[in-house]
Amino acid sequence: xxxxxxxxxxxxxxxxxxxxxxxxxxxxxxxxxxxxxxxxxxxxxxxxxxxxxxxxxxxxxxxxxxxxxxxxxxxxxxxxxxxxxxxxxxxxxxxxxxxxxxxxxxxxxxxxxxxxxxxxxxxxxxxxxxxxxxxxxxxxxxxxxxxxxxxxxxxxxxxxxxxxxxxxxxxxxxxxxxxxxxxxxxxxxxxxxxxxxxxxxxxxxxxxxxxxxxxxxxxxxxxxxxxxxxxxxxxxxxxxxxxxxxxxxxxxxxxxxxxxxxxxxxxxxxxxxxxxxxxxxxxxxxxxxxxxxxxxxxxxxxxxxxxxxxxxxxxxxxxxxxxxxxxxxxxxxxxxxxxxxxxxxxxxxxxxxxxxxxxxxxxxxxxxxxxxxxxxxxxxxxxxxxxxxx
Length: 390
Fold this sequence. Notes:
Elements lengths: L3 H5 L12 H17 L6 H105 L7 H105 L15 E4 L12 E4 L5 E3 L4 E9 L3 E8 L3 E10 L7 E2 L4 E8 L4 E10 L2 E3 L10
Helix pairs in contact: 3-4
């Protein structure tokens, strides 16, 4: 128990009568009862819940990273598809331009052939007119031969001359007709061939244009998919950042919570203040000393050695202001002879937080603090718990 001898058993003489042990014990019991009623904020289960939450967030982190890897692969694939589509579109556009140039040449050549055909038709019309003229010239001879049987021919020389002339005219007519037919056939064949080529080129242009339009649709689809993937990737990256931030927050809270477990900090507790030690653990002494007394400069802050909850903050006659912190419902630290303290009962304070300022400590014959560490109601030697700084 934190009796009077626990506080004053370090051989000090105070200027006021110390309260009796039952009074101090009553004060401590009241504080402990308050602690039982007030639930602790840092229950052991909270650490378990934090670890479970961190594990769940780690799983979410892995899922987000897997999702990002998948989306990145999709993005690379879509970029490759988009580049391939653009290359194919450029190639098809080049083919279309080439085919259209070829088509223009064919159309120009067809125009030339048609003009030649028109000229040939004019020649044919002229030949027909010439043939009609020749026929009109031959007609009288023909009529005379049919009517007289050639009896009116004056001599054979005239007859031979007329015959030869007639035969020459017929040959000329036949030759001219044959040439016209040959030219018409050649021109018609050329025209038909060129129109066939034009039809083929138009078919190719239409097919290439259809392929180009299809690729343009693919390109638009790839771009839309790429936009969707990038947006989804940004969302996943944002979620990953949130998850990582939450994990970091949980880890900080877990570290803070771990720092609240004073039982794991043996040998690592900081001193409540840096100063000259004037009293050390000596429970067998007369009077016994169950803590440590430290001489300090006036106004020096006295700090909590670990996270704790204020269960007592009041002035006790002969002890000055006394602050008691509870750690994990089992460990307590006591800070006596404080000049003042801003803390209130029930308040949680972190390690290193000021519990008050050094007041007059008779053991130092000046400013100082008396510090005790207890497990339940039993004082513990602080030398094994505090660092060796002092």
